[in-house]
Amino acid sequence: MSSLRSSIGSISFVPTRKSYFYEELPCLDLATPRSGLLSFLKKGPNDGSVNIEIHTKKNCTASAHKTTSIQDSGFLDDRFQMIRFPLELFMLQGANMNAVVGLNWTGWESERLESAEWSIGDIELLCPSHSSDT
After folding, report:
1. Residue 121 to residues 6, 19, 44, 105, 134: CA-CA distances in angstroms?
2. What gap in Å lies between CA 27 and CA 99, rounded to an integer?
3. What confidence tens digit (pLDDT) does each residue in 123-132 have?
4. What is the pTM of this model?
């Protein structure tokens, strides 16, 4: 990150190509119910995109993890948006949602990559049977 500042519940930054934001989680079973969501606020340039990765393991005692990613685009220029991704999107790509250990935002892309400010905040895993703030 070429600049970084934080406030309650969010961070704002100007990323470089290798920047990432990683949130380590205790091993979580998010496989059921299938209607769970990854919810967060985002702000960035309108041509921006970022890969959102979920890190999973074969089981909670395994040492190696697997990365499954989806691309998030469609930023509204310099305005906050609440985004909710169904966790099933990761499951459909082969993620083992029985042992989720991390979330990562990486692969920032934009024509204004190293000059535009981006923000992420209010990250939550929402499940009908329980909610887990990260």
Report:
1. 10, 16, 12, 12, 10
2. 5
3. 999 887 644 5
4. 0.86
Peptide bond into 33 cis (omega under 30): yes
Q: Is 121 exposed, middle or buried (0-12, 13-18, 19+ CB in 10 A)?
A: middle
CB 100 within 8 A of CB 92: no
Burial state string for 58-91 with b = 16 or more CB within 10 A and e = fewer than 16: eeeeeeeebebbbebeebeeeeeeebebebbebb
Residue with tokens 């989680």: 25
